Structure formats: C-alpha cells, structure tokens
Amino acid sequence: MNENPRSLVGYCGLYCGACGIHQGKIKQAAENLQKIISVYGFDKLTTELAKYEPAFNHYTEFENVLNGFVNMFGECPGCLTGGGPPDCAIRECRKQKAYTTCVECGETETCEKLQRYGPQALERLQKIKAMGIDKWAEEMQRKVDAGYCYLDERT
C-alpha cells in the first residue's frame, strides 16, 4: 500500500482507491485503443474506411476525445486532496459543515446530493458508521489490492 487507506475515503463514502480513474484504468483503456489504432494503421486509413462507414469522417474528433480521456482521466489523487469533480456539491457541503465525511451529518438519509449516487451511497455510509472509517477503509483497500474496482459493479 502506497497510501493511507483513510486518505482515500471520499466525503460521500466512495473509496477513491476503488475508482477506475484513480486506478488509471480509464487512461489505460484509451491509451490501449490509441495503440491498437496505430499498430493496425487505422489512423492512416480513415479516408478509405469512410467509404464504408461514414463515422470515420469524424476520426479527428474521435482522436481528440481519446486524447481528452488520457489527459483528463490520467491522474486523480482522490477527493480529499482535490481530485474528483471540481464542482462536487458534496465537497462544497462538507466544507460548509466542516465534516470529515457525510457520515457525521444528520441529514444523510434525506440528502438530495447523496441521492444522485444511488442507494449504494447510503449503504456505504452506513457501513462506515458501523465499522468506523479506518476499519472500513482498510477493508476496501484489501478488496482493491485483490483487484476490486467500482467499474466491476457496472458490468
């Protein structure tokens, strides 16, 4: 472990260490696709390919989007150190209320900001509250060390 697991607990109860962005998986996927395109020379064949598939007329825009994924989702230090969405409503709320996480707030059950993260957000916060933040973070880090990523939940 390079980082203290507690430092990767987001304000909302997400474990930043389990995030595909933090783990570099999104950047890696975009870079892998760029490599495949280059190795097979698709980037040189877009005019020819566009004769069969009109979408290839937009290859330059696609290439720019891939570069955007590499640049924007390359390194995320985690929520507590300025990572994540810069306009995160939960981060702003937490700053106003001076809480470490939403667990400390008495409004978690009805919080509209948390609701956009689905019922899993409340479940995670309840688990943090029951276990304590340090034990929960250590458990999450063990899962991450074994290969866990939130992206796996969406497949």
Distance from N terminus to C terminus (CA atoms, Å) equals 26 Å
Number of strands: 0
Radius of gyration, Cα only, in angstroms?
20 Å
Main beta-sheet annotation = none
Number of helices: 7
Structural class: mainly alpha
From the spread of the alpha carbons, the general shape counts as elongated
Integer average pLDDT: 90
Helix and strand string, N-terminal first?
Answer: HHHHHHH
DSSP strand content: under 5%
Low-confidence stretches: none
Q: Estimate percent helicity.
A: 40-55%
* Overall structural domain count: 2
Task: Give an overview of the whole structure.
This protein is mainly α and 155 residues long. It has 2 domains: 98 residues, no CATH class; 50 residues. The protein has 7 helices and no strands. Helix 6 packs across helix 7. It is elongated and about 60 Å long.
Short description:
This protein is mainly alpha-helical.
Strands, helices and their partners?
Elements: H1 25-39, H2 46-49, H3 59-72, H4 89-97, H5 112-115, H6 119-131, H7 133-145
Helix pairs in contact: 1-3, 6-7
List keywords for this structure.
155 residues, mainly alpha, 2 domains, 46% helix, elongated
